[in-house]
Write a structure and sequence with these properties.
The protein has 148 residues and is of the alpha/beta class. It contains 5 helices and 6 strands; from the N terminus they run E-E-H-E-H-E-H-E-H-E-H. The chain has helices spanning 37-50, 62-72, 88-98, 114-120, 132-147; strands at 15-19, 28-33, 54-59, 76-80, 103-108, 124-127. Strand 2, helix 1 (37-50) and strand 3 form a beta-alpha-beta unit. The longest helix is centred in the last third of the chain and has 16 residues, at 132-147.
């Protein structure tokens, strides 16, 4: 919880819902950007049960994802394609132009967006129907690569 609001909600800001910090801060910092609350909640539950320690922020729009990326300097962003204000592909281009070290995984319901995701600079693409173990393995590989 942050600023005393339930669930870490900060009025007028993106959501920060899980914040588990280890000594020496070896935690994995992740932003989940998706306009659907149930999608963010499911991803958060999956990541928090498998990645320890982790810090997870949530964004509902591409604009929030871009702002959070500058504030928290995440290791990985899980980015939905379709979001209001700024879609995930445009947000990916913007974030990668400023912070190319951030790894971005584009998530979409449709596999047809893969070429667009690669063109936008995404490091990986998965459909939302892919096996969750594949997402976890990808996040782990991308975050381990930063340490080597």
């Amino acid at each position: 919880m942050r600023h005393g609001f339930p669930g870490g909600y900060i009025p007028g800001s993106a959501l920060q819902t899980e914040h588990v910090r280890a000594p020496e801060d070896h935690s994995v910092r992740i932003i989940i950007a998706d306009d659907q609350k149930h999608a963010r909640s499911g991803l958060r539950a999956l990541l928090c049960s498998s990645l320890k320690p982790c810090e997870i922020w949530e964004a509902r729009t591409g604009v929030e994802a871009d702002r959070l990326a500058g504030e928290v300097r995440p290791h990985v962003i899980l980015m939905d394609v379709r979001m209001p204000e700024l879609d995930g592909l445009a947000a990916t281009r913007l974030i990668k132009s400023r912070q190319p070290e951030i790894k971005i995984i584009i998530l979409s319901l449709n596999a047809c967006c893969k070429a667009d995701a690669v063109s936008a600079g995404a490091d990986a693409f998965l459909t939302k129907g892919d096996d969750p173990a594949l997402l976890l393995a990808l996040v782990k590989a991308l975050t381990e690569a930063r340490d080597s």
